[in-house]
Amino acid sequence: MTEKSSTPDDSFHVFDTTLRDGAQREGINLTVADKLTIARHLDDFGVGFIEGGWPGANPRDTEFFARAAAEITFRNAQLVAFGATRRPNAKAADDPQVNALLASGAPVVTLVAKSHDRHVELALRTTLDENVEMVRDTVSYLRSQGRRVFVDCEHFFDGYRANPEYAKAVVRAAAEAGADVVVLCDTNGGMLPAQVQAVVATVAADTGARLGIHAQDDTGCAVANTLAAVDAGATHVQCTANGYGERVGNANLFPVVAALELKYDKRVLPQGALRDMTRVSHAIAEVVNLAPSTHQPYVGVSAFAHKAGLHASAIKVDPDLYQHIDPELVGNRIRMLVSDMAGRASIELKGKELGLDLGGDRELVGRVVERVKERELRGYTYEAADASFELLLREELRGRDGGAGAQQYFRTESWRAITEDRPDGTHANEATVKVWAKGERIVATAEGNGPVNALDRALRVGLEQIYPQLAKLELVDYKVRILEGKHGTSSTTRVLISTADGEGEWSTVGVADNVIAASWQALEDAVTYGLLRAGVEPAP
Amino acid sequence: MTEKSSTPDDSFHVFDTTLRDGAQREGINLTVADKLTIARHLDDFGVGFIEGGWPGANPRDTEFFARAAAEITFRNAQLVAFGATRRPNAKAADDPQVNALLASGAPVVTLVAKSHDRHVELALRTTLDENVEMVRDTVSYLRSQGRRVFVDCEHFFDGYRANPEYAKAVVRAAAEAGADVVVLCDTNGGMLPAQVQAVVATVAADTGARLGIHAQDDTGCAVANTLAAVDAGATHVQCTANGYGERVGNANLFPVVAALELKYDKRVLPQGALRDMTRVSHAIAEVVNLAPSTHQPYVGVSAFAHKAGLHASAIKVDPDLYQHIDPELVGNRIRMLVSDMAGRASIELKGKELGLDLGGDRELVGRVVERVKERELRGYTYEAADASFELLLREELRGRDGGAGAQQYFRTESWRAITEDRPDGTHANEATVKVWAKGERIVATAEGNGPVNALDRALRVGLEQIYPQLAKLELVDYKVRILEGKHGTSSTTRVLISTADGEGEWSTVGVADNVIAASWQALEDAVTYGLLRAGVEPAP
């Protein structure tokens, strides 16, 4: 790549396979909507290629490619379809699996090919020569149809150990047939960096092919193996967000690109993209519904946390003596576990972002920091609940300016939700809410698909009499996380709700000892924020 | 070391610092009893050195050394006290901090020393020459008192970059004064393997000292950095169990020793010790009260889990083609995951794992594959719900063998859950269940912290009259996932429940249009599986 340019060029590829290989991780089960959301995050982050799945192999992946083409305008990435070389003793042009790759409309295809002699014989059950022919024929056919082709040589490193000449013959066949990159895969993940470096260097010299690397983390060295391949001449790295993947996982995209940009001084992402890395990592964890790893390199909340004492004063004098990079370069921050300095700064920044003038009011900011800390300790999270945070900030501002405190459009007297399983197998969900607004007592009852849906409807049916603006509100997303997993259903429950009004979307949070009560809190905030957005004056 | 002997000798050191550097991890807070338990595990596992803490610096560490000497008969390890070089411009023999190291009774002392010129000036506030003198004097004094001494050169790699001659002068001073090993520390964790290898090789050649390596994981390369140092001649590796440590953590002991034993073919632990590795890793996680990482290399429960249907048929033929080592070598095991990407082969393997003989019954396996696919399309996931999968499999087996189908201990007539927010702000959760078991109709009502907790209690209160075995069941984890995020609370909800009976734990799944109904399904499976485990005969 051009090391000083502001955008990466084709000379180095950051290739993401979160949606294909990453989805193999135990516990991840992505819907098409999840995949589209992740693809948007990855494109925003600036990876060059997004491998979306195996179209034709399962209906979800086929649907993903159709919807991605229709719904996403990619700014940085190209979409890649993953598939296999054609069946033995047939023509690629006649192979439905190969044609499904073309039908996906993806401009790039990654073909998985066998390069380990025993895998050819035992898994493909064909001859070594026919396997080479399968690679050549499938690559040529896809090239003739105008596709760019990368070839993933599965089990390459084990295959190279068993039969180096055959492994290299597959690489040569792929490159000669028109594959732009031949990717050497450590599919079983057993390699160490020195071995990877030696093999990649030899294969590059012997075949002249442009090489890529796909590393799995079974020895705990996937990031290092990826960098070792780059040291040996590979110019294409395959990674997954947060290292998700089968067994232990894949090479983690984030430390790989951070090392390339910050340690190698290579431009592999659009300028400035790295500063979004922590946010992107956490957002993708949210979509796959796994807690972000607190100890992940670069992006974990602990990654730049310093314990108090020994180092504290020295860190103040010169933080660079105690951290390997400036955490802001990756969108993370230093955490002094005794000081609220960082907290204050981010509250002020956040206020500015929301257009609320905190006017350098140290006392106000201090009160907000304290409330956020106290609530986060109880399980709230404001990172993913902007609207709840803004309501909290406004409450403190109104308090300072002599206002009534909370932005209150209504006051809850009580509510009740009943879910019933009837003998005929159907379910009934009914909720009743009793609230006060503009001096009136409102009692409303509604049914729903579940208890929270029933509560949401009852609240809005009741309040619409006073606030007709609520008619256009729609609850669009609902997430539940149980905190402290070892206490079963008696543990703390956090609910995040997203609400839309046709013009925008906002998120609110609720925390309680049960899912219904936590949902109610988030619903109250959602409705309050909706009225605030609509410009309605508070009148409890 | 002697590569073929059954025990490691002094030529290579496995040095564990879980109790000192590992304890710096955010969230770890060890009591003396915890430290003694971990020391026993590490000694059993066979590490050569256990760094126990800084005696004199805090009373807990002083007590640990006293009690370890009195209470533990070490079979493999030597206890190591950690401390600092003497104060500037004084004598080591007169320094209370140094004498506390002697008073600990530990036969080995690790001294931390500055080797980065700016740290000497800014943190120690002394001259470069005096720092070298502090190293020389403190090492000589401890040697004169019969202690073995290792010297940790803090911030060595950053120091070497800033002033290589000075960094090497510190190494030389330590070695000349009698330190057995000089440990090069990547304290800020910013190094990459190629850099570590180059520096270690140069320092070894230029100083002739015996070198060790202490790596932090801030680039995600701590294991690889440790191995790179070994490649360059280091013969002493400092690690922590599960990679615990400050910020991101330290080099993880387990993948380091596994690589040395299995990939380098070096004997660094007593023969057979590696087969205890998975157990030791989980036991230490238990003591420090952190959930074992499911995706840790070698020892995670997912480390040898296979998901893709593609591989499953070939794994049956030859598992070695699909795993980098035999999991039994590290005390782990292969696991086949059931998912919609899987096919017949993985169902058969899973049946074998569960001890259910599917007897090559193609029709039965076909029916199971179809049911799993159909249910996964509706949102079920069986890879995280072993017990629900086993119930499904048993149902099909019983059907084939002329049985009644499902393993039914009870039949649900109906249930109801009510959650109420009272005007005083408290919540009430009440559930009523109506079920049939052994011909009896049971109606039971219970309260709980939330609606699901109330349902769980009501079901078990009711059924315990018939099945007293249920008394020991406990719901230990509860997870909720909303599928298809764009439909709010009217979308599909998946609930995963883990239940324990004091001997083991199992997971069940439920999917429905609302969280309460989905929870009920998972609770039904949880109770059914609990009774099956207890050996109770089905009698609906």
Q: Helical stretch count of chain A? A: 17
Instruction: Specify the biggest β-sheet of chain A.
Output: 8 strands, parallel, barrel
The CATH superfamily title of the largest domain in chain A: Aldolase class I
The total tally of domains of chain A equals 2
**CATH-defined topology of the largest domain in chain A:** TIM Barrel
Helix share, percent of chain A: 25-40%
Strand order of the largest sheet of chain A: 1-2-3-4-5-6-7-8
Beta strand count of chain A? 16
Tell me the β content of chain A: 15-25%
Overall geometry of chain A comes to: globular
What does this protein look like?
The structure is a homodimer of 540-residue chains. With 540 residues, chain A is α/β, with parallel strands linked by helices. The first copy, chain A, folds into two domains: 276 residues, TIM Barrel; 123 residues, Double Stranded RNA Binding Domain. The first copy, chain A, is built from 17 helices and 16 strands. An eight-stranded parallel β-barrel of chain A has the order 1-2-3-4-5-6-7-8, surrounded by nine helices. The longest helix of chain A is centred in the last third of the chain and has 19 residues. The first copy, chain A, is globular, with a radius of gyration of 27 Å. The interface between A and B is large, with 113 and 116 residues. Strand 11 of chain A pairs antiparallel with strand 11 of chain B, so a sheet runs across the interface.
